[in-house]
Amino acid sequence: MATVDAADELAARVAAVALEERDAGDDGADDSGKDSAGPTMQLVADGAHGRLAAVVEKKQKEEAKEGEHDHEQGKSRASGPLLPVPLPPSAALSPEYIRARITDEYLLNLDALSVHDPALSQRFWQPSVQPEDLFLPMTSESPYMLQVERDPITFEAKAFRESHVSSSETAVSSMSMTRTVAANADKTYGSTLQYPFMPGGMGVEVAQQMRLLASKKDTHQQESHSADADSKLTQPDLSLFDFPENKVLPDLGDVSAHLPPPPSSSSSLAQQLALAGLLDDLALPLTREGEKDTSSTSTSTTTTAAATATTTERQEGQQAEESSAVTSSAAVPALSELTAAAASGTGEESMGSGGGGGEEEEEEEGNGEDGAGAKEEVEEDLEAALTKTYAQANAQSTGQEQTKNWAITIPVKAKVEDFEFQVPNPAITYPFELDDFQKQAIICMERHESVFVAAHTSAGKTVVAEYAIAMSQKHMTRVIYTSPIKALSNQKFRDFATRFDDVGLLTGDVQIRPDASCLIMTTEILRSMLYRGADMIRDVEWVIFDEVHYINNAERGVVWEETIIMLPKHVNVVMLSATVPNTFEFADWVGRTRKQRVYVIHTPKRPVPLEHFLYVGKVGKADPLFKIVDAHGKFHMKNHSAAVAGKKEGEGKKAAKTGSYGPKKRGNASWGGDRVLYRSLVQMLKKENLNPCVVFTFSKKRCDQNAYNLRGTSFNTAEEEGRVNAIFHRSISILKGSDAHLPQVERIKAMVRHGVGVHHSGLLPIMKELVEILFSQGLIKVLFATETFAMGVNMPAKCVVFDSIRKHDGIQLRDLLPGEYVQMAGRAGRRGLDTTGTVIVLCKGDVPDVNSLHTVMLGKPTVLASRFRLTYNMILNLLRVEDLRVEDMMRQSFSEADLQRETSSQRQALVEGQAQLAVLGSEEFPSDLEEYYTLAVEYLDASHRMMAAILASNNAMRIVGAEGRVVVVNSQMYRNTLAVVLRTMKSSNGPAAPKDFEVLIMVDETSKQKPGQRKEKTNKEESLLPLPVTHLDVPQGAVSHAIVRIAGTDIVAITGEKIPVDKKKVVQQRNATECTMVAQQLQQLAAKGLESLSQLHPIKDLGVKQLEAADAHTRMKALYKQLSGFECTSHPDFTSMYGRLHERRVLMNQIDSLQHQLSDRNLTLLPEYEQRIEVMQRLQFINSERIVQLKGRVACEITTCNELLVTQLIFHDILTPLDPEEVVALLSCMVFQNRRASEPRLTPRLEEGVSTITRMAIEIAETQLACGMQVSVEEYLEEFKFGLVEVVYEWARGMAFKQITELTDEPEGSIVRCIIRLEQACREVRNAARVIGDPVLSQKMEQAANMIKRDIVFAASLYTVDQ
């Protein structure tokens, strides 16, 4: 039968169904002749087009014949037209008519489709009532789930496969990505009941992976329904192995098949591995035990050969691409022979047969059952070898990892010439040419590599973040953008929402589209999601850390480290930072922690160079700017001197005019001087066309005062003032009642109308955002801002002015750090608008000195440093998960980065040391030799202590260092050898170290070494043989000499003998004759023996006054007497045995040291961790087995405030009897941070609550002290500030915001920030109450949160109001 075209066949089948529907419709038609035919024909007619007409006509003729035949048989058949009644034949066969009808009735009226009719798409069976079924257990859920296989490059879906999910793998018991999905309520934020996903740097050991593989294999074999022995072979879970992350999956063929067939005799393990391109990464033995290893030249099946070839090409391309980079993983030799042999299903017989590949294939086809048995054996060997090989590979990688850099720096001058070729289909395009560093980052991201981009301010780092977002949306995954502050999150949400479709925002009080593919949040929220095992993390492809240099923040820097450590392995990171000097070290730590390479990309220079000036005010009639650093970074000393002279001239004229001399006064006089200086400054800026300008001032009060000093000065035109008024009124329209007329709102309105603004944390959030919007639109010309304005806000200016280069950091008044100065100065210079950016330093007092200016302006930025610290919340979150250890978190921290780098080499040295110790065996020594060795070690230690005291004494050094002093040297090169001191020298270990000595020493002529030359150390010579000086070493052959430099600690005995030395001939000229004479005298002294030489006493003869020297000398004499009585010294093989014992002891000490360094005892924070554990055990948060108890579970819910104190308040029933407004008022002491606030007026119940909280805080502080923590009670109590208790209490009771601002001297912004954090704290206490089953407290906290969540405090952000 000829093959029918697919469209014709489809049309024929559908036409038959359509005619059947027509017949059914004719039988059931009513009197009105309403069309009741089914929709099948109309739906398919448009797809069949003209071919349908011929098919229908053919079908009509066939049915006509059948109808005549039925009529002849006497059957009744309803008469009527062949087509449905409303459709004439000509119209029905018209494609235009059919298309129009389908469009009108179905495409535009989806409800008419039968697929939406449940009666047609579902079938129902009435269940039979069987009461006895209630006694039967419920059916468990399916142990399988569908997983998508994606191309790792394009991320396109290639196929779906069924993955076995153990019934025990749930969110509350497993960290696996294959665990079942939790409830929808916990999908975004997670829950403290859930386990986190396995962090990328805390994978299980290979042995555990193998055991898990074996258990899964047994499970699969038990569930197999095939009786064939070959079908029992189970495919291993390849995700357990650490295969190369950039391995490209091969084309799996027809994706429409979706599910691949289960493993069977036709799908061997070797074939599956070959198809996955994995055998080239394995090194497996080809032969069984006792058989000869031969190489195979046979080929696999066509599919396997093609897959292997594809894999080889990809590997070659990757090797060529990464030839200049370091190796990404431990290299394991490839075994292509095993691929062919195992895939062909033959053993050594097929490999050993000669002939070509075609002959072998014919033999394979004819093998039958014999071939099946051989194939099964090979696959069993292969599977067994997998376990062995990966264990070996892990051991080998231990040694190779030490030479592996996880960070790869891309040269700053590397040009990208073929960007279009490397990225032919970019996820997003730009209308401008990208910079090289942006192209480099995009190329790395297209390879699915993590990047660390350190670029200057306004260089264009946002492009890299946007590309990551575009890639995730293209791949239909998620991306998370984190920022250090909430204000930056809001701004980035506005920016990204205008460019991308699916963007959400998660902050403490705002949730906008939490299911979006791009989520913007603070880093604290991401950390909480990771600890709580939020299922949303499964879909995350990228995490963007903006302003990652914020890790240097003393309070919050630990959040970045925790988040990076806790991220699962499948997540890649994009880190954006200002320029820092140790980008490579930080990236290496991130890569080593997450076990993935990180590419470091940084910009060589700013896109808009900066020029730095000093401004001292008017000098005569001039108003000069003194350029101190030009655009090329050159410091101009002459201009600094000119600025100093100009400052003196200006002050002299001012003093002559006012008649006042002497030092300046602060207070009101200073404000007046600032007003004059700033008025002249803004006039100069306006004249030089340097607006818009940002004036950084390190005081909120001074910001407001400086802006107030410019009252009466307008920088905006009438048109601009109108635009300002329109934007202002539209922005405050969301405020209600008196909130729109607050004093701060009125002040800001008057300022911004004239083009002047302020920006600091004391402003209301809506006012800060309004100022930012106006500044970005060029309607604010002079902005007085604090340092936070430079944190990530993309709002460049033409000029930046520093009110001062000194700031108070909460501890002391100091100069700005270079990194701080660069961060703020970087706001100057608008790319594409300005050729240079102008930075001005105001000289309100004296001109800063040259050193300070040079350090601040041209010094190295602050390095990224670890701020890792332990918290109770972190410890409890890790203790509640069995597979995670707090010690591992400490080990993975940036503070232990050096320890991480050395771990691999230390592990290899430990393995080698243990192997050497095994080689030495367990030799039996004389019974007293071990004790002799122990005393000898103690003797040598006492000798070193005595010499250290002698070398530290000036009196002793004059005697020991005298020319000609005879000493005994015991070092790696010379053992108990006499030497003559020639002179003392400064130590090579630094000025604080003991001095060195230049000596003339005896050597054997046959083994003479040049002065200063060192022997190669052997394993036996890692340290001195701890033998006391019982005899002197005399050369056996001809005596010669050497002039060498020794350390002072190499001298073990100081004699009273002196040999005359001609310093000029010996020291300067190195006269051979004179030196030989001195050596001969040494030989004569050595021949007499040690007993004949008098030794100087450290106290009596050398004048050492330290008691330690006397004690050491006394101990040496006592030990010497003990050592002389051992019988082992008379053994003929004593020296050899003693050397072997020493070698073993040295090796054992090295092993102990390495084990200590690799153990948890070597962690810096381990003592503090043990102290915090003891605190929580005493407070019953955990038990003696360190299992988290109910108190600990409650504390895990608290992240906003002090978890220990809040939990104690809950369990002591302190909060439940209080009213909701009283509870939230008392909790404000844990979120309010300002140290200086007016004293609140409290009600008696609030005063009692304050005293109770203070008392319980003292109890916790005393418990910490008792456990060894170095935090005093006073320091602990400083964490709790009650300055806003009254304000929050009245706000919860409904008082207007304008009235509560009159109850305190705190700025409005601080009040709003405190209340917003309180709302989150209330939700956390509510959740904690639910954990312990306290509905009363839970309801009160819900009510308290609703009471404070109102009006201007929770007004929508201007960046999100449209969303």
Write the layout of secondary structure elements.
Blueprint: H1 6-27, H2 40-48, H3 51-72, H4 89-92, H5 95-107, H6 118-121, E1 144-150, E2 157-164, H7 206-223, H8 269-275, H9 302-321, H10 336-344, H11 348-352, H12 357-365, H13 368-400, E3 407-409, H14 419-422, H15 436-446, E4 450-454, H16 462-475, E5 478-483, H17 486-497, E6 503-506, E7 511-512, E8 518-522, H18 523-531, E9 540-545, H19 557-566, E10 572-577, H20 583-594, E11 598-602, E12 610-615, E13 626-629, H21 637-658, H22 668-687, E14 693-696, H23 700-709, H24 718-731, H25 743-753, E15 756-759, H26 765-776, E16 782-785, E17 799-802, E18 806-808, E19 813-815, H27 818-825, E20 837-842, H28 850-858, H29 872-879, H30 886-892, H31 897-920, H32 929-951, H33 954-960, E21 965-969, E22 977-985, E23 996-1004, E24 1039-1047, E25 1051-1058, H34 1063-1068, H35 1072-1088, H36 1107-1123, H37 1134-1158, H38 1166-1178, H39 1190-1196, H40 1203-1211, H41 1220-1227, H42 1244-1266, H43 1273-1277, H44 1285-1292, H45 1297-1300, H46 1308-1332, H47 1335-1348
Helix pairs in contact: 1-2, 1-3, 2-5, 8-10, 10-13, 15-16, 18-19, 27-28, 29-39, 31-37, 32-36, 39-40, 39-46, 40-42, 41-44, 41-47, 46-47
Organism: Salpingoeca rosetta (strain ATCC 50818 / BSB-021)
GO biological process, one term: nuclear-transcribed mRNA catabolic process, 3'-5' exonucleolytic nonsense-mediated decay
InterPro entries: Beta-barrel_MTR4 (IPR025696), DEAD/DEAH_box_helicase_dom (IPR011545), Helicase_ATP-bd (IPR014001), Helicase_C-like (IPR001650), MTR4-like_stalk (IPR048392), P-loop_NTPase (IPR027417), RNA-DNA_Helicase (IPR050699), SKI2-like (IPR016438)
